[in-house]
């Protein structure tokens, strides 16, 4: 056992970044969850762009050519589903500039269909005050509250004085794992369907031999 442990430690030290990032080593921080966000199903409410516009790879995090801006007022909701089960360590945000920076961000774990009426009645899983700045801010969440989740909804309730709120980049740091229920369902269907099929054939042969 000890020999095996030493080998794995040596391997990990030798290629630490590549072991954890695999083919996503260009994303920046270790454990960036960009590739595990279901971008095609990201939704932004009260925004003049697509929610997926702000889900960018790490090397585009400071890009200001693409953003979303609030529409009717200064509130935005962004619903972000993941492709598996995740444990989030930090939220990454680039917003603004200046008074278009949101005053705060409220996070709701596993609330995939929240709208503006819902957020008024629900307590967020966690919320943060948002600082003005041109860099990406990192907001460390309480990991115990963001473990084994499949989606996060972000609510920006107000700007810091402007008529609209603007968001350039949303990202997450954490760990991803494959959902456990999918393989079980696949195995169940593969075992059940042939049995059902044979039973139907047997009944047809015994009671309904003429073709209907």
From TrEMBL:
Gene3D superfamilies reported in the protein's UniProt record: PITH domain (2.60.120.470)
Q: Which Pfam families match?
A: PITH
What PROSITE patterns has UniProt attached to this entry?
PITH (PS51532)
Q: Name one GO cellular component term.
A: cytoplasm
Q: Where is the composition biased (Basic and acidic residues)?
A: 1-25
Q: Where is this region: Disordered?
A: 1-27
Source species, domain of life:
Eukaryota
Q: Where is the PITH domain?
A: 22-192
For this chain, the family text in UniProt reads: Belongs to the PITHD1 family.
The record ties this protein, via PANTHER family, to: AD039 HT014 THIOREDOXIN FAMILY TRP26 (PTHR12175), PITH DOMAIN-CONTAINING PROTEIN 1 (PTHR12175:SF1)
Name of the protein this chain belongs to: PITH domain-containing protein
